[in-house]
Backbone:
């Protein structure tokens, strides 16, 4: 069993209290009304599924019910860091990824 640190509660809790929501740091289209069906479909349904480091959105469903981000290794399931929404990750796969995330809403 994993123990996940909730950055809002400030403590480690059992993994059953949490739910993974999906990929973190996805920028919502600025003008959804102007999006083509293809652009809207890309935003809604297509996500990265990398092998290795991945930034995910999680919710503390059975606790404070707040959302936060997690950097996790998808191969080993090791949690590298957790951080609040609006913060940027300190653990990234490469410098280009860090630069690309700096302009994306969290």
Residues:
């Amino acid at each position: 069993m994993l123990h996940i640190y909730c950055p809002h509660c400030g403590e480690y809790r059992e993994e059953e209290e949490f739910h993974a929501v999906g990929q973190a740091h996805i920028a919502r289209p600025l003008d959804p009304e102007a999006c083509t069906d293809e652009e809207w479909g890309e935003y809604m349904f297509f996500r990265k599924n990398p092998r290795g480091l991945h930034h995910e959105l999680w919710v503390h469903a059975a606790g404070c019910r707040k959302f936060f981000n997690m950097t996790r290794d998808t191969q080993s399931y090791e949690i590298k860091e957790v951080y609040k929404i609006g913060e940027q990750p300190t653990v990234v796969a490469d410098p280009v990824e860090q630069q690309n995330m700096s302009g994306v809403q969290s």
About this structure: Residues 13 and 102 are 30 Å apart (CA to CA).
